[in-house]
Amino acid sequence: MRLTNVAHLRLPFGRLLGYDLTVGEPGRALPVSFDQGLHVGAGDRPGSWMALSFKLPEAVALDDLATAWLAVVARHGTLRTVFSPAAAPDEGPVLHEVEVGPGAWVEHPIAPGQAVNAALRDVLDAACTPYGRPSHRLCVLQTAAGPTVVVGADHAHTDMWSMLVIARDLLTSLAAVRAGEKPALPPTPTFAEHTQSLRDRPAAPEEVRRRWEEIITDGGGVMPRFPMPLGEVTTLQRERVEVRDVLDVDDCAAFSAEARDRGVSTLALVVSSMTEVTQRLAEQPLRAVFPVHSRYEPTWHDSVGWFITNSVLESADPDPRASAAAVKEAVQMGSWPLADVLAPWGGMPVAPGMFAISWLDLRRLPVRVDSAGLEAQYVGAEILTDGVMLWFILDESGLHLRCRYPDTDEARRNVGAWLDALVDHVGAHARASAGGRLVVDGEVFRVMRAQRTDVGALVALLADDPIGATREGAELPRYEAAYDAITRDSSHYLAVVRDARDEVAGTMQLTIVPGLSRGGTTRLQVEGVRVAPAHRGRGLGTAMLSWAHDHGAARGATLAQLTTDLARTEARAFYTRLGYEESHAGLKRPL
């Protein structure tokens, strides 16, 4: 799922509507978490929200959408709480229960020349504030292409996991309403209950307190800051947001295989890359604020709230196992009530330039939505900032990041260079990973996506037999144009296989083909399998096809298919030995 920013969000033009709920007077006071106290205590301000947008497959009646939303609010007590300011200067904000009931749809005008996303930003900035009543809002953009739903909420009540819960429950409720049924969503435990459960935990042991003190002391008495100059950040600056796709699905699978091969998590291997890049560019260890989730038990998996506690990550050794140990330590340090731990500094000692790294592996969450089919996106607010915040999202489409930093010349130069180096380093890990490694007859070969510079060598392989020689021979620009068309479609994988000397040893083109026949079977189409003469007869072709089958299976294919010229008797025998059956007649005609 992509992470984006409301300034970068692309929305079609249409009518923008929001649902106004009715909210009663503040009721019973509830416990406030450490992070809520910091966030809400900073006061009402624009840009304190987070949102999730997704497209519905067809038009929906507004009354049905409102009914579904009310069912979601009824399920999650956290969405029926509001904050009020502190009663005295030495006290914190107060959280209250409230009654929430049906309301009405309101159209939010889009001014002449105003972008749709700018209008949406204004709506969420106004509604989703720390002291909003409520501080969340359901919006819908009605367009000719169908409705886009946006759910926004002040961060004090939600986190990224929570936004998935809200989207899932809204879609479930909407399906029930449209089927003429009453939504059946049982209540979930509230975040206030979780806050109380954390308060009831024992205080942090002395070794945890001592480690917090060491890291804060090493950081000059404040939380970790970005290790390179950011320019003038004593006052808040306009933000610059960079969104990058770090690894595609193939490279991500290879990178994860590399992590498994080293006995660590994917996160630990990314931390290893960040550690090495930081040491190379800044000559410092990697130090960052590191949010960790606090949904320790399944009790909280379906709840909505800010189930995040801040920890600190310090990694001085880029060895993956050392980085894994650093991650483990950070999780342990964030597993204790922080108010008591940070009391010697009067709370969290923040300073301009604070550096934070967030990681979310959507593949491992017990909450799932069809993010690809819904075109779902996490949407961040547009703010002023003096620090660097980095979010990683890992999902079925790969590894993505979003980075927010002050838009100063120095920050552009230094944060940009750090991000460039990080993306390159992680990519290099993936390209050299065990996921694309074949060991044949004692020699190591690597499977990777072909680059444009490989096209000439691949064409030479295709032409290196009596049949290929009669079909190949066009000018190189035609093949390069074909390469461009192939790479624009992620369902294609044009593979190049390299030997230990980095020379081209083989190629094949793999295509994932969804279909309706055979009960909706997805197929792996295999084309253009070739092995260089120096490597034939050693088993490389067999290893390549085995890798291809794994590639297809990982993408949902349950059937592999290929065609080969009837004159290729040896090739037909080869494929038969691998389990392919000559069960169909292949027909071709020129167009």
TrEMBL record:
Region of interest (Disordered), ranges: 185-206
N-acetyltransferase domain residues: 443-591
Pfam family, one: Acetyltransf_1
Keyword Transferase: yes
Record-linked Gene3D superfamilies: 3.40.630.30, Chloramphenicol acetyltransferase-like domain
Transmembrane segments: none
Domain of life: Bacteria
Keywords on record: Acyltransferase, Transferase
Ranges of compositional bias, category Basic and acidic residues: 196-206
InterPro entries: Acyl_CoA_acyltransferase, Bact_Acetyltransf, CAT-like_dom_sf, Condensation_dom, GNAT_dom
Name recorded for this polypeptide: Peptide synthetase
